[in-house]
């Protein structure tokens, strides 16, 4: 294998929603979809690079509408993957999937009383969820082959960048819909390339110690002090690892979803949900307070529904932005030998400029509309730090918590 070729084999860890032209009817593994995810983590490993230089390097390596075809082409194939129908989800993973990917199943006659609706859900609990799309089953494999179109100087250095991006993708991120909430998490089983002395390979991590070594290798040299303009690693970033022997990735994903829902729910004290709920009720009544909900930092848009009055509130960014992805990434993995694997979670927080300068948060009710300024940095990030600190101090399933120094 020459330095012009990098080959990776991924194992699907959590349900993967990767659609083609008709995502609700079929699943499709395509090179461009993986390329987009890989490109995000390629950027994330380059803090401090001026945006103009970053775009130029990206265009040279991966291609662009202005710069022409990519130097590196990607070919992706499924191996041992099963396309399944709709996925049943319990409360935690149903919450993480969100309204676009999960829906409450048709209600069946029941005698037990229903719990009150949760903020942002608007339908009685605890009806189980089902996905709105088909998915690829955990345990399936995806093989990716990246190859350079031509031989020239710099191929080895570019291949190293490709490898690092693929490792970061399989360590912190995922593929497909709701990957930032832990769906589509993948495990890198094999990574090979052509080196100076023939074919070389990256060793697969079998335990959390090896995973920590991989994190140190990826992020050891990264240091960037100012708030970056795009999502990337910096000395403000956090990476928290939860190692839960005896539990599966599915168990850990579900429990993280429940903890996340509790933190953001007005029915639980100690998170942001209760204060945000009360602030929005007061805003509907009087137009105050004039600061946005704390949970806005987890991503925009989001909304509220108040069952006592049937009132609704929508929260979003101003202008044409209308979306801000979450800076918090949930990645699930399973480490160990086959038949003895256990769940591990990697939670990554990449703070960056939340919205462009002078952008506002728009809060809109049926009879009221207002614009609010962002909470100041670093105050805006406090809810994410509080949730990560809670997981670190009281980890689910008594998992071992480790945070990158």
Mean pLDDT: 88
User: Helical proportion?
Assistant: 25-40%
Structural class: alpha+beta
**How many individual β-strands?**
18
Tell me about the biggest sheet?
5 strands, antiparallel
Number of helices: 8
Shape: globular
What's the CATH class of the largest domain, please? Alpha Beta
Radius of gyration: 22 Å
The ordered H/E elements are EHHEEEHEEEEHEEHEHHEEEEEEHE
CATH topology of the largest domain: Alpha-Beta Plaits
Report the sheet-strand fraction. 15-25%
Looking at the overall shape, the CATH architecture of the largest domain is: 2-Layer Sandwich
* Contiguous uncertain segments of 5+ residues: 110-125
What number of domains?
2
Spatial strand arrangement across the major sheet: 2-8-1-9-10
Intertermini distance: 37 Å
Produce the secondary structure layout.
Blueprint: E1 5-12, H1 31-44, H2 51-62, E2 72-79, E3 83-84, E4 88-89, H3 91-101, E5 102-104, E6 129-131, E7 135-136, E8 141-148, H4 155-172, E9 186-195, E10 198-202, H5 208-219, E11 238-244, H6 249-264, H7 273-286, E12 302-306, E13 311-317, E14 328-335, E15 342-349, E16 361-365, E17 369-372, H8 382-393, E18 400-403
Antiparallel strand pairs: 1-8, 1-9, 2-8, 3-7, 4-6, 5-6, 9-10, 11-15, 11-18, 12-13, 13-16, 14-15, 16-17
What would you say about this model in short?
Helices cover 27% and strands 24% of the residues.
């Amino acid at each position: 294998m020459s330095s012009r070729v990098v080959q990776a084999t991924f194992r699907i860890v959590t349900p993967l929603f990767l659609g083609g032209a008709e995502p609700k009817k079929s699943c499709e593994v395509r090179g461009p979809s993986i390329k987009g995810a890989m490109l995000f983590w390629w950027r994330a490993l380059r803090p401090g690079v001026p945006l103009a230089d970053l775009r130029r390097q990206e265009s040279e390596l991966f291609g662009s509408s202005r710069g022409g075809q990519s130097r590196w082409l990607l070919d992706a194939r499924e191996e041992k993957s099963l396309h399944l129908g709709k996925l049943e989800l319990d409360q935690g993973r149903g919450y993480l999937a969100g309204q676009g990917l999960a829906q409450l199943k048709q209600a069946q006659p029941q005698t037990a009383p229903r719990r009150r609706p949760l903020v942002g859900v608007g339908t009685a609990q605890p009806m189980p969820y089902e996905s709105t799309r088909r998915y690829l089953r955990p345990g399936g494999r995806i093989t990716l082959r990246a190859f350079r179109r031509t031989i020239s100087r710099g191929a080895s250095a570019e291949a190293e960048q490709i490898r690092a991006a693929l490792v970061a993708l399989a360590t912190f991120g995922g593929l497909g819909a709701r990957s930032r909430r832990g769906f589509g998490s993948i495990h890198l089983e094999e990574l090979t390339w052509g080196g100076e002395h023939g074919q070389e390979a990256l060793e697969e991590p079998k335990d959390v110690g090896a995973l920590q070594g991989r994190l140190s290798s990826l992020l050891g040299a990264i240091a960037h002090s100012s708030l970056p303009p795009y999502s990337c690693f910096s000395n403000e970033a956090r990476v928290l690892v939860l190692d839960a022997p005896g539990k599966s990735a599915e168990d850990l994903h579900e429990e993280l979803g429940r903890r996340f829902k509790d933190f953001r729910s007005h029915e639980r004290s100690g998170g942001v949900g209760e204060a945000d709920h009360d602030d929005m009720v007061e805003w509907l009544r009087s137009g105050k307070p004039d600061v946005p909900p704390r949970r806005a930092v987890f991503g925009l848009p989001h909304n509220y529904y108040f069952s006592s009055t049937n009132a609704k509130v929508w929260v979003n960014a101003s202008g044409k932005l209308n979306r801000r992805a979450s800076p918090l990434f949930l990645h699930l993995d399973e480490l160990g030998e086959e038949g003895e694997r256990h769940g591990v979670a990697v939670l990554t927080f990449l703070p960056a400029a939340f919205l462009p300068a002078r952008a506002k948060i728009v809060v809109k009710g049926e009879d009221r509309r207002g614009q609010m300024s962002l909470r100041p940095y670093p105050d805006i990030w406090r809810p994410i730090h509080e949730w990560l600190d809670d997981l670190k101090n009281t980890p689910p399933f008594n998992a071992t918590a480790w945070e990158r120094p």
